[in-house]
Amino acid sequence: MSRYTDFTDIENDIIDTVSKYISREVRPRAHELDRSKTFPTDMLAAMKEMGLFGLAVPEEYGGFQLRLPVFAVVMEIIAAGWTTLAAYINSHCTVAYAIAKHGNEDQKQRYLPLMATGEQRGALLLTEAGAGSDLQSIGTVATPTEDGYTISGSKIFVTNGAKATVLLTLARTSFDEGSNKPRSSLFLVDKSQEGVSVTSEFHKMAYSQVDTMEIVLEKVAVARSAVLGDSPGRGMRQLLDALEVGRIAIAASAVGLAANALSESKRYASDRKSFGVSINQHQAVQLRLAEMATKLVAARLMTAEAARAKESGERADMLSGMAKLLASESAREITEDALRIHGGYGYIDEFVVERLYREAPLYIVGEGTNDIQKLVIARRLIDDSEADVLRLPQ
Questions:
Q1: Assigned fold of 123-233
Q2: Best CATH choice for the domain 9-121 from the list 1.20.1250.20, 1.10.540.10, 3.10.450.50, 1.10.132.60
Q3: C-beta separation of 220 from 195 below 8 A
Q4: I need a surface site. Which of 85, 251, 274, 352 has the fewest CB within 10 A?
Q5: CA 337 to CA 341: how far, in whole Å?
Q6: Measuring CA to CA, which residue among 200, 274, 246, 265 is closest to residue 367?
Q7: What confidence tens digit (pLDDT) does each residue in 357-387 have?
Q8: What pLDDT was estimated at residue 4?
Q9: pLDDT score recorded for residue 290
Q10: Is residue 19 predicted with pLDDT exceeding 90?
Q11: Cα three-residue angle 178-133-370, rounded to 5 degrees
């Protein structure tokens, strides 16, 4: 793995360690494990051993808390090996980031050390059947009680919902007196609590080893201390901050998937022969490979820029949306081109690109659909709140 000149030696060592593990243990086995729907128990154990579940946990609580540009590189490397492994980490790290950034000291002490080791795993409970991108319309309600709150509602598309133990749950807590708009809060709910139940699993076109569940909360009693950071009514602000990190992770994962597709295409095009030469000697294939490579590097650079801006404290909702939009659309286009290069073999499940082609659409609809990202970008463009990013002539 090439060394990053703007990363420290320790950061580069972490990247090298992850890269060597992925190259040695994951890439040779991932496709067969996926085809056989075998859960990667040993890989999960190795990820815990390497501390990958602590990527967003501060050092004082037992984690690495990688800088966001480094975190993005690590997520890309993992996804280039097998996107399933990246999916295990993404939502978990988003929850850990939210606790580290917005939680009080008691919450950090209680959750982060065990999340760093992977003994506790986090999941986001946001989407509902009637409220996907429009989280202001959620029906899950946290009703105040003498001791805290009672939470009732149903959440769908919960990644890692079966195996997670810490559920960061968005619930409506009140209405704004002036505008009558709902005010929401984030709650730290232990899945073992009475009233929490995993009711069904969603079966997807890909990622069969990643559990995507519906979770029902029926009069779940939580203490006031379950509110993230002791700040009722600030849930949307806290969530949007955390989702910017999640979108950077999704973008990096999409870049990893695209890199895998280009790697498979480059290898296949050098091995496959037609008309007496390898097909990478045909101009049509060369032009397709050139476009794939250009899209890959552009998506990687966009993701790195979003990570840099977020880390520096700059407003990053537009940049993170751009990164997620560009990387996911590029991944879809690159995997389709990979299938075209493979011809009929690209449609056969013995070849890796068939799986990558099925995996790519998740990044378009997950972590906020791409149409939502476009709306965020357009609004920031219109209100000039991130004009410095665009550097438009006056």
A1: Butyryl-CoA Dehydrogenase, subunit A; domain 2 (2.40.110)
A2: 1.10.540.10
A3: yes
A4: 274
A5: 6
A6: 246
A7: 999 999 999 988 999 999 999 999 999 888 8
A8: 83
A9: 98
A10: yes
A11: 130
Judge contact between 112 and 95, C-beta under 8 A: no
- Measure the CA angle with vertex 350, ends 345 and 356; round to 5°: 80
* Domain spans of the chain, in order of start: 9-121, 123-233, 237-384
Answer for the pair 346, 338: CB distance below 8 angstroms, yes or no: yes
Torsion sign, CA atoms 16, 21, 26, 27: positive
Give whole-number Cα distances, 152 to 165, 183, 225, 364, 370, in Å. Answer: 18, 16, 18, 30, 30
pLDDT per position as a tens digit, 56-95: 999 999 999 899 999 999 999 999 999 999 999 999 999 9
State mean pLDDT over 202-207.
95
Reply yes or no on whether 367 is catalytic: yes
CA distances from 287 to 297, 338, 342 (A): 16, 12, 15
Res 236 pLDDT > 80 = yes
Amino acid at 190: D
Paired sense of beta strands 166-175 and 122-125, if any:
parallel
User: How many Å is the maximal CA-CA distance in the chain?
Assistant: 80
CA-nearest of 136, 155, 385 to 240 is 136
Q: Do 123-233 and 237-384 have matching folds?
A: no
Highest mean pLDDT among 12-16, 172-176, 312-316: 12-16
What average pLDDT does the segment 104-113 reach?
Answer: 98
Question: Residue 217: how many CA atoms within 13 Å on its side-chain side?
Answer: 33
Q: Which of 11, 76, 367, 386 is catalytic?
A: 367
Q: What is the pLDDT of residue 177?
A: 63
Statement: residue 175 has pLDDT above 90 = no
- Answer yes or no: are the C-beta atoms of 115 and 123 closer than 8 Å: no
Between CA 36 and CA 99 the distance in angstroms is: 36
Q: CB 274: neighbour CB atoms within 10 A?
A: 11
Is 136's pLDDT higher than 80? yes
**Backbone dihedral angles phi then psi of residue 39, each to the nearest 5 degrees:** -70, 130
What's the pLDDT at 131? Answer: 84
CATH architecture of 237-384: Up-down Bundle (1.20)
Q: What's the distance, CA 38 to chain centroid?
A: 22
For the question of whether the overall pTM of this predicted structure is more than 0.85, the answer is: yes
Q: Are the C-beta atoms of 199 and 214 separated by less than 8 Å?
A: yes
